[in-house]
Amino acid sequence: MLKLPESTSPSPSTPPRGIKAGYWPSWRAEKFPPSAISTSYFTHLFYAFVVPDANNYQILITQTDDKWMKNFTATLHAKTPGAKAFISIGGGTASPHTLSNMASNPDSRAAFINSSVSVARKYGFDGLDLDWEFPHTPQDMSNLSLLFKEWHEAIENESSISGKPQLFLSAAVYFASNFFLSNIPRAYPVEAMSKYVDFVSPMCYDYHGSWDTSVTGEHALLYDKASNISTSYGISSWIKAGIPPRKLVMGLPLYGRTWQLKSPSENGIGAPAVGTGPGNNGVMKYIDIVEFNVTNAEGVVFDEQTVSMYSYAGTDWIGYDGPASIEKKVEFAKAQGLGGYFFWALGYDKDFTLSKTGFIYKPKIITLIILFSSHVCFFLCLSQFASLNKALKIAKSNPTRRRRSLISSLPIHPQIGGSLISNPTRRRFNSSRMTRWHFFSAILNRWNHPQSSEYRVRSSPILNSNNRRCTDSFRLTNTCFNKCVEKRYKESELNMGENSCIDRCVSKYWHVTNLIGQLLGSGRPPM
């Protein structure tokens, strides 16, 4: 992870599963304490960073760490009880030699592992994260495989002995699974990572920067037709290597990289440059980019081909992610079936503008379940498909028996179903109330989606279009959720693109909804 130097000028004050994570840089604790984090936008937060001692490989805890780690976990769990707190070990400024030496020996690995688990328990963390930047040799990668295996076994053993929930284990990694650094080929041990690590977080940024000032470049572009240095390539390399998409959590930057243009008239991506631009050594936090755009930017451009943004003014040029590119990247993550995304780093955003852009990040399966619960009378008919078909035939042939036949075939209480189906006014009122208050509290609150005004505005078209056809009830909604989702949710198997829990009954579902839609005059429900 990149550790940004502090600005000399004051800065403005400031989501299987569906992981929406963020790293909190502890060295900025006085300027941006844990209490300043809008935790409702996140499911996982990482304390960055601690490092192992170079001699005994146990985790070093300074007085500052002792103070802020307690504050970090207590604040997160108090403000958002369902969120997970991780302690991240390593970081961009940690010594890769120390981590390499630690991983090379069984005794040093054991000392490191036992110390990390002890620290996590002492300070109330829910998981451990390794940010080794980066394993240098094939032997390092082989040792990393052993480290993850032994770490996982130690975590399981500790949980068995203590009776406490098992700690999670994650890894922040290079954006691609196979890569060259310093002309040395490297490949992560994906088999071990897939087996022993709960999720893997590719750092999908810093593709271009101050190490090459000859031309401007987007440091976190999603696509690049000219090379394989892009987020789409990196994510696909991990998937092809064998990491399940649901275990991938895509990295997003809350900062940009800057260049000084050779000529103001050439100001696009790849324009000639003569050095770094504004900011700290060519790096600018998003909060400062917003200020730059307001005060002196001549152009703010969203580039559709690369899915990135850039701003320029005179010879100053900044490449970064803004709301438009973040939204497109979140769509990409969903389409790929990824486990979620994370931001580096909290405190660099402007009023959580980017952090909240993608926080309404429902996997496909949850979208389907929301739809099904809004049509729960149809969905629950699957268990009595034969009797319903018979009732529908009677209803179609004899309109006077329509409501009676339909109501008697539904697996819901006749008084509830009857009143909702027979009375359009009550149907709209009750279904809206039950869907909005019961279902969303049962499902979305588990995903820690805040019920903000923005969320209600964005979700209202879905609710309004479906409420007219909903005959929900508290008991049946719970049954639907518990049967299809809850177990797999608790076991962290749910992911952004998965819908295998439901797809066995989808064909029947559409047949039923089409038939009932014809009877009630509503047609096929919208997706």
Automatic annotation (TrEMBL):
PROSITE patterns: GH18_1 (PS01095), GH18_2 (PS51910). It holds the Pfam family zf-Tim10_DDP. Residues 1-20 are annotated as: Disordered. One of its GO terms (biological process) is carbohydrate metabolic process. One of its GO terms (cellular component) is extracellular region. The chain crosses the membrane at residues 365-386. InterPro entries: Chitinase_II/V-like_cat, Chitinase_insertion_sf, GH, Glyco_hydro18_cat, Glyco_hydro_18_chit_AS, Glycosyl_Hydrlase_18, Tim10-like, Tim10-like_dom_sf. The keyword Transmembrane helix applies. Gene3D superfamilies: 3.10.50.10, Glycosidases (3.20.20.80), Mitochondrial import inner membrane translocase subunit tim13 like domains (1.10.287.810). The keyword Nucleus does not apply. Residues 18-365 form the GH18 domain. One of its GO terms (molecular function) is chitin binding. Keywords: Glycoprotein, Glycosidase, Hydrolase, Membrane, Signal, Transmembrane, Transmembrane helix. PANTHER family: CHITINASE, GH18 DOMAIN-CONTAINING PROTEIN. Belongs to the glycosyl hydrolase 18 family. Chitinase class V subfamily. This is GH18 domain-containing protein. The lineage of its organism: Eukaryota, Viridiplantae, Streptophyta, Embryophyta, Tracheophyta.
